[in-house]
Design goal:
single chain; alpha+beta; four-stranded mixed sheet; two-stranded antiparallel sheet; 14 helices; 47% helix; 11% strand; globular
């Protein structure tokens, strides 16, 4: 989905819940316009234009990060202007060749504590509980393979592992937060296997990344593209956005997924419908962003209560 197409959905992003006494407007999530704490050395006017011009030419990594930080507030204004947001990667092309810029913008938006929460909490407090909870589900061949990979067990067959332990555990979570029908335009529920393809795709490292991009028209975006010798042996990750590749700084599946999640906020991108419950759960439960102002399904609330109370 392109930036321009995504912005067309924004009028439907907010929801209003009503009771007999009051109305609470829910606006939380990645497309919300939010007040960012004062950031030093933000460029405006001609100085901002000069910094953006320099970003197109310099090869100095430290200078790129400095100038990207100095133009952060200008970039946020662009992203929340429907007339300019579609051009963000043309205006700031260093996202396409410089690793770590998504992480820096998210850090500027939310601070170090929020930025580190997912990686700090998943391994220590949630991964094992998610696996334990999924054991109660009706077992399908896909879920069985994912649980085997998540637990680092040897598969019963000669099949390759279904991703590494961390990515498999995230896809197990998707089984607990299955995609819901999206109204009249999608009366049929999407399968977990189809939803998985909206989150991460694999390509052999010997194959052309450009060939992959030529086949992505109409594909849900953003998503992770994993490149390696097998799903369990990935050497590099990319975020595919607007049919362009943004290299991930992390070479681990958990770190790459963290960058994928953060890219929604950095680029003000609506969650994919098939992954809405998954992303909302992670946003409100692990990152602790906009809880109370983001619409959540009963299943998201129920699973949060279960996992937080599980010993």
């Amino acid at each position: 989905m392109t930036f321009r197409a995504t912005k067309a959905f924004l009028s439907g992003e907010s929801r209003t819940t009503s009771t007999s006494h009051n109305r609470v407007e829910l606006k939380g999530g990645p497309t919300s316009s939010r007040t960012v704490c004062s950031i030093d050395d933000q460029q405006t006017g001609d100085e901002c234009m000069e910094a953006m011009s320099l970003l197109h030419h310099t090869t100095d990594r430290d200078l790129v990060f400095q100038k990207m930080k100095e133009t952060f507030q200008y970039r946020q204004q662009m992203l929340h202007d429907p007339q300019q947001s579609a051009d963000i990667l043309q205006t700031f092309p260093r996202f396409l060749d410089m690793k770590g810029l998504i992480l820096q913008d998210f850090l500027l938006m939310f601070g170090a504590e929020t930025a580190s929460r997912f990686l700090g909490k998943w391994e220590t407090g949630f991964k094992d509980k998610v696996i334990q909870e999924a054991r109660a589900l009706r077992e399908t061949p896909l879920l069985k393979k994912l649980l085997t990979s998540a637990l680092n067990e040897n598969p019963d067959t000669a099949d390759e592992p279904e991703w590494d332990s961390d990515m498999a555990s995230l896809l197990v979570l998707l089984h607990l937060l299955t995609p819901q029908p999206a109204g009249r335009k999608r009366p049929k529920k999407i399968s977990v296997r189809e939803a998985t393809d909206h989150l991460v795709k694999f390509q052999k490292s010997c194959q052309s990344l450009e060939d992959h991009l030529r086949t992505t028209e109409g594909s849900p975006q953003p998503y992770l593209l994993a490149s390696g010798t097998s799903k369990a042996q990935v050497s590099s990750f990319y975020i595919v956005l607007d049919r362009k590749l943004l290299p991930c700084q992390s070479c681990t599946s958990l770190g790459a997924f963290d960058e994928l999640f953060k890219s929604h906020f950095v680029f003000s991108m609506k969650y994919d419908d098939a992954l809405l419950s998954l992303y909302t759960f992670l946003q409100t439960t692990l990152y602790n962003i906009d809880r109370g102002t983001t619409e959540e399904t009963p299943r998201v609330k129920e699973l949060r209560a279960k996992l937080l109370n599980k010993q």
